[in-house]
Specification:
Length: 259
């Protein structure tokens, strides 16, 4: 496995190009025990990047398994990249630090590697979290070009990463180009087109069912998911496919060894 690294030129360190998405439509697509187990499968399969959020209500299970793997000597804390996100209900500056500390407690760690604003809001208190050493980097999620520019115009510590929806059916080109032009690393969420999203219409075709992609996958001897993930990595982004299925977890991280 040869994982690419995207340097955080505006922050510190790098993001590995394939991470594990951990948002699950709670209770329907993964119990906490299941999530804990799949995090173990993912660590063993080589994942070192975990995409989490306070709102996902899964951080406790993730932290439990990561701590277990660290204590067993399978991984070192410094070798994994943990993202968490500030939820919308905690935008009040008085609540930001408390939420981050709660996430750290659930994740059983002293710091995260990336702290994103989950949806557009003010940034000053995020900078304080960075200054306190509770996060190595701060970043944005679901911001438009105008909103991102506003942050750059007013911030002291630059956001080094943005997490946005990007898939073969929605390349989000203007925003991706704008953010990479600013020096931000871009992370694609929903890379597979969110096949189990409750708002997906019955029978609606996503990228996993796309005939061109199916044909390409056949030609390459890869799965359609691997072709999609590889394409988005070559597009210059990190990807964070979510799966609670061990075989898919292994399949997805092996998307970096072909063109
Ligand atoms: N910042 C934000 O606002 C935001 C928004 C949405 C998502 N995210 C992050 O991005 C991650 C990924 O997005 P997502 O979960 O919405 O969509 P996604 O990764 O595009 O799709 C996940 C779905 O694809 C299935 N799947 C995974 N690997 C597969 C494979 N190899 N072949 C076929 N199906 C496969 C999974 O099923 P099984 O689990 O049953 O295997 C799951 O139903 C989230 O988990 C979360 O961490 C962030």
């Amino acid at each position: 496995m040869d994982l690419h690294r995207i340097q955080l030129t505006l922050g510190s360190g790098y993001i590995t190009s394939i991470g594990l998405g951990t948002f699950t439509f709670f209770g329907e697509h993964g119990s906490l025990d299941e999530i804990e187990a799949v995090v173990g499968v993912a660590v063993e399969a080589g994942y070192r990047h975990f995409d989490c959020a306070w709102a996902y209500r899964t951080q406790g299970a993730i932290g439990k398994m990561l701590e277990k793997k660290i204590n067993e000597g399978v991984i070192k804390r410094k070798d994994i990249f943990i993202t968490t996100k500030l939820w919308n209900a905690h935008h009040n500056p008085k609540l930001v630090l408390g939420e981050l500390k709660d996430s750290l407690n659930q994740l059983r760690t002293n710091y995260v590697d990336m702290f994103l604003i989950h949806f557009p809001t003010g940034e000053k208190e995020m900078e304080r979290c960075h200054q306190l050493g509770l996060t190595k980097n701060i970043g944005l999620s679901n911001f438009t070009i105008e909103q991102t520019q506003r942050i750059f115009d007013s911030c002291t510590i630059k956001p080094s990463n943005i997490q946005i929806e990007v898939s073969p059916f929605f390349l989000n080109e203007r925003l991706v180009k704008f953010c990479t032009g600013k020096g931000m690393a871009v992370t694609s969420y929903g890379p597979l087109g969110c096949p189990s999203h409750p708002e997906r219409l019955a029978g609606e075709q996503g990228p996993l069912e796309d005939l061109v992609l199916i044909e390409m996958a056949k030609r390459k001897g890869k799965s359609v998911a691997q072709v999609i993930l590889r394409f988005l990595i070559q597009y210059g982004t990190a990807v964070i496919p979510k799966s609670v299925t061990p075989s898919r977890i292994r399949e997805n991280i092996n998307a970096s060894t072909f063109s």
